[in-house]
Amino acid sequence: MSEPVDEQATDQELEPVEEEEQEEPAAEAREAEHAPGELVIPDDYAVFEGSPNGGRRGVAVVVGRFNGEITSRLLDSALSELDRAGVVKDAITVVPVPGAFELPLAAMAFAKTRRYACVVALGCVIRGETPHFEYVAGEAASGLQLAALETGVPVAFGVLTVESAEQAEARLEKGAEAVRTALEMADLFTQLRTSAAAAGR
Known about the structure:
The chain has 201 residues and is α/β, with parallel strands linked by helices. The chain has a single domain (59-200), classed as Rossmann fold (3-Layer(aba) Sandwich). Helix content is 46%, strand content 14%. The protein has helices at 7-14, 27-31, 68-84, 103-112, 132-151, 165-169, 174-200; strands at residues 59-64, 92-97, 118-126, 155-162. Strands 2-1-3-4 form a four-stranded parallel sheet, with helices on both faces. Strand 1 (59-64), helix 3 (68-84) and strand 2 (92-97) form a beta-alpha-beta unit. The protein is globular. 32% of the residues are buried. Residues 19-29 have low confidence and may be disordered.
């Protein structure tokens, strides 16, 4: 004969056990976007490496007007870095365009003139409630890369693609970073052309 079942005890046993809520990763962890450390190249290899110096280089800075409060400060960051690198004002052309989507066309046009050693593209795309963000950010990135590949002129990507204006505020140094990238690549290409010309003699 089976023993009587304690219904109250059974009900308690069947109550779902609440799992402890897992804490979300700390903001600092989510913000970590890069691994620390420098590139280490083994000895005894030929190395071509550019330097972010201005010299007599002409530089086109293409900048979107959309989200103008942010892009104005990106532009300030870029122009300050150009000044630090020794690029004279007469060698700099600033090209305002409506927004990030128009950056590739302007970058391509100015690169094709061959009057500029490099092009710096600045813009800001902030995520909204529609897929518009993905289309604009993606097309800006691929279009700027295409402009560089088709012309052989370095085009630096200084476009912020962020979730909020606050994130953009924390990344204004991207303007200066894009300048350093553009100048380094321009110097690298100059060294490569000089080396190739010398080898051809």
